[in-house]
Specification:
about 220 residues, alpha/beta, DNA polymerase, domain 1, 6-stranded parallel sheet, about 40% helix, globular
C-alpha cells in the first residue's frame, strides 16, 4: 500500500504545543466568581478550541442574569487581561513533550509546519516559549471570523502555504478542532482530550507516533 505524501502539518497551540489550560481556567474562574456564576472543570473542558466570546456564552448558561453586549465585551476583556498577565510565567520549559523533536523531524523531511489556533494571544505565547519563528505560517484568532468547529482557521493556514487541504495534517487536542479538521478535508490526528474523538484519522498518545505518517 502506498503511503500518502503529506506536505504540511498544522498544529493547534493550546494543549498541543504548550498547555495554558490552568491560566485559562483561573482567568475564567475569576470572572465567574466576580459574577456569582458556577464554574468548574467540567464547564472549562467545553471551552477547548472555542473563541473567547463563545466561551463566555457557555459560561453564562449558568447565570440567571441577562447581560448586554457592552457588558459581555467588558467581561471578555477582564478575562483576557488576567490571562495575558499570567502568560508572563510561560517559558521554553512549558513546551509539551516531543514537540521540539517532531518539529526538527518535519524540518528534515521538508514538511511545512503551521499553527492554527483560535487564540488571539497565539504570537505572545509562541514568543514566550521561544517558538515564534519556528513555523512557516501562523493563523490565529486575529485572522478569522469563525472559531472551531468551523474549518476557517485550518483552511486559511493551507491557503497561506499554497497547500491543498487534503495534503495537510492537523494535530488537535479538542473535539471541536478535530471536527474542524475533518470539515476542512484534512487528516486529523487526535491527542490528549481529543483521543475520545470517533472521527479522528489517527490517535496519538505520543507525538512521536506521527513519524510513521512520513515513513
Amino acid at each position: 500500500m502506498l503511503v500518502k505524501k503529506f506536505k504540511c502539518v498544522i498544529f493547534d497551540l493550546d494543549g498541543v504545543i504548550v498547555s495554558t489550560d490552568q491560566f485559562h481556567f483561573l482567568a475564567w474562574k475569576a470572572l465567574a466568581d466576580r459574577e456569582g456564576i458556577e464554574f468548574n472543570q467540567e464547564v472549562n473542558n467545553r471551552l477547548r478550541g472555542v473563541s473567547r466570546p463563545e466561551s463566555l456564552e457557555i459560561i453564562l448558561e449558568k447565570s440567571k442574569k441577562k447581560y448586554s453586549a457592552i457588558e459581555k465585551k467588558e467581561m471578555t476583556d477582564y478575562k483576557n487581561q488576567r490571562y495575558v498577565i499570567s502568560l508572563s510565567q510561560l517559558g521554553p520549559k512549558d513546551i509539551l513533550p516531543e514537540v521540539i523533536d517532531l518539529i526538527h523531524f518535519l524540518n528534515e523531511k521538508d514538511i511545512l509546519i503551521a499553527i492554527g489556533s483560535s487564540s488571539k494571544n497565539t504570537k505572545t505565547i509562541l514568543k514566550q516559549i521561544g517558538l515564534l519563528e519556528a513555523f512557516d505560517t501562523i493563523v490565529d484568532g486575529n485572522d478569522i471570523t469563525h472559531s472551531k468547529p468551523h474549518p476557517e482557521v485550518f483552511l486559511k493556514a493551507a491557503e497561506k502555504l499554497s497547500i491543498n487541504p487534503k495534503d495537510c495534517i492537523v494535530v488537535e487536542d479538542a473535539l471541536a478542532g478535530i471536527n474542524a479538521a475533518k470539515s476542512a478535508g484534512m487528516f486529523a490526528v487526535a491527542v490528549s482530550d481529543a483521543l475520545k474523538a470517533t472521527n479522528a484519522d489517527m490517535k496519538a498518545t505520543e507525538l512521536s507516533q506521527m513519524k510513521t505518517l512520513f515513513s
